[in-house]
């Protein structure tokens, strides 16, 4: 008998019919002998409807009252799912975040979970009930309702799984797992049966929307095995787990990419201590996040300083840099908002040399010019012109043979 | 500085505009120097929408989960009203029933309040905040959400007023007070500035829809002065209070009536012990409520047994009685579902003789035949043919001079 925490997002519970389909899935898992805790989001559209009501009154409503308002969305879903489970003969009991003491700090709308009291949940599980918990919400020291912010229901599920020492935390979503790359770009993309936490973190931070990065971090911190599955199709999904001998023997697990990039180069900067801070300080002060940073030393005692930001911040950053360039005596500021980032991700990279050179060779063979390179222990990222995105991804997918099922070892 | 509990029903908070209007009313009262606790219902239509969702899943959903579901309705309102108060510069804080520990028994959907913990509310009032509380809901010993059933928000308001020893509990509704009779029947009906609890209880039990009978009982039990006012018009409304020397010196306060009556007479019943039980037992077993009961002894050692029921139960009761009549050897069962009940209500009745004879004289003068009479300490009810309802009410209103402002004494 395994203890499983399942999480269903807003689309998966978006109508009465879908809630009934989720009930069938949950009841079937219980029939197989597992103990089940089910975390649900608000029905899709409901949170936006509630926010709309608030905005009719006040553009910037009190964060505390906003949490009181939007937390009703998940509360509706837990009641309806419990009813749907009862209807098919499956004993179930619903709890709001507050009722199972999901204790958070008081940062309304972006609260962080501090502690979960699992006594009630364990008692219900021991009595043979499915426990249905409202995602995204908790309660602070004062008893005020809090919400966890974006991806909060994933975090609730992982936190509950950690508190209960669950055997697995299953995130049901509208995709059936994590792929070697986006199948819309490379139709030969293959679903991974396993991926490591570190790889998943890199994939998530690079824009893969399957899981919220905070939930992945949380799962990694508390050693919770995470599985991503489809709400709508059968399948094993992708297990996000710890690197071990049973894992796929691949050097590279996947190819992530990010279209939302823009790049700046400040040319001819005097190569003096503190110059990087003088350039990036004003950028950071304007709340613009910087991603890759590269500095090359030129021949004449000056240096070229290059970095990337989110494409939405391009205009704001360019205006700041034009001011800064004069102050630091730079020759020129060059901006480019038609670039993208492509990254190879794989824990196998650590032990296999030559990945970078294979990558550069594959891109070069297609005539793709690399504008920037940045590496980490399990990732190599390159910046290229956006017109090469699809070609680059497919070339790398082919070069590293990602469509093929890997041989199992161990 | 007075401490006032105000309650606004579903119609009064039925749209964003109306919620904003309520906020204005509340803020104005606070400006006048009062401390305010505001109890609100779900926006009109919202509870039915939620029940509709549940019914799509299950005709008879779990009462516990139903309470989890419908209690979101009031939770939405408290958040929106608090935002609307903030918007106009009035400090306010919202609480669900559970958050202010409105402790009830576990009778889901018809729970009764056991205790209210007023610590949080008092702290907010002392800090100058308006406290906005979700009506209709509480929490049981296990922390499960409960709802109070019909009129529950009125009961929440009265219970809070009792716990806080409030100076007044104001029920805002779509009428501007309690009238001597229904103004749709007698246009000369006059709003009462005061009415006693006992009179209000009789008026409510006779079908006057202004206040829920449970809330009135609760207010009487805990000596909470209740005031009924209009959400939409200015005015003093009607104060429901204890009989005292300052009250209106009227013999009669009002005329109530009930159109939903039906009457049965079992004729020629042998006048033996137990015969009343043999007739009414099967009626009661069928969950039919009996209102007035009259038994006259005939000349021939037999008796006529007459009683009234709700008109909806007429067919069911008639079928049962036709069976019973044979068993008890009765001559005939006569049913009539075209009758109504008219009642005079007034605490003054206790000390003034002759009210009954004045009543009968007034009806007789209009040629109205009285079919049944029943009296209590502060009420005289008569059953008449339904065609005489309006005529009878107006004749009595005139006979007891109810349109005139009473002289004040004391």
TrEMBL record, chains A, B:
Gene Ontology cellular component annotations, sorted alphabetically: cytosol
Enzyme superclass (EC): transferase
Transmembrane segments: none
Keyword Kinase carried by entry: yes
Chain positions recorded as substrate binding sites: 47, 74
Xref: InterPro entries: AceGlu_kinase-like_sf, ACT-like_dom_sf, ACT_Aspartokinase, ACT_dom, AKii-LysC-BS, Asp/Glu/Uridylate_kinase, Asp_kin_monofn, Asp_kinase
Keyword Transferase: yes
Domain ACT residues, every copy: 264-338, 344-410
GO biological process, one term: homoserine biosynthetic process
Keywords: Amino-acid biosynthesis, ATP-binding, Kinase, Lysine biosynthesis, Nucleotide-binding, Transferase
UniProt-annotated binding residues for ATP: 7-10, 173-174, 179, 184, 209-210
Reactions catalysed, as given in the entry: L-aspartate + ATP = 4-phospho-L-aspartate + ADP
EC number: 2.7.2.4
UniProt superkingdom: Bacteria
Gene3D superfamilies the UniProt entry points to: Acetylglutamate kinase-like (3.40.1160.10), VC0802-like (3.30.2130.10)
A GO molecular-function annotation: aspartate kinase activity
Pfam families the record matches: AA_kinase, ACT, ACT_9
Pathway info: Amino-acid biosynthesis; L-threonine biosynthesis; L-threonine from L-aspartate: step 1/5; Amino-acid biosynthesis; L-lysine biosynthesis via DAP pathway; (S)-tetrahydrodipicolinate from L-aspartate: step 1/4; Amino-acid biosynthesis; L-methionine biosynthesis via de novo pathway; L-homoserine from L-aspartate: step 1/3
Family statement: Belongs to the aspartokinase family.
Name of the protein in its database record: Aspartokinase
Organism whose genome encodes this protein: Sedimenticola thiotaurini
Lineage: Bacteria, Pseudomonadati, Pseudomonadota, Gammaproteobacteria, Chromatiales
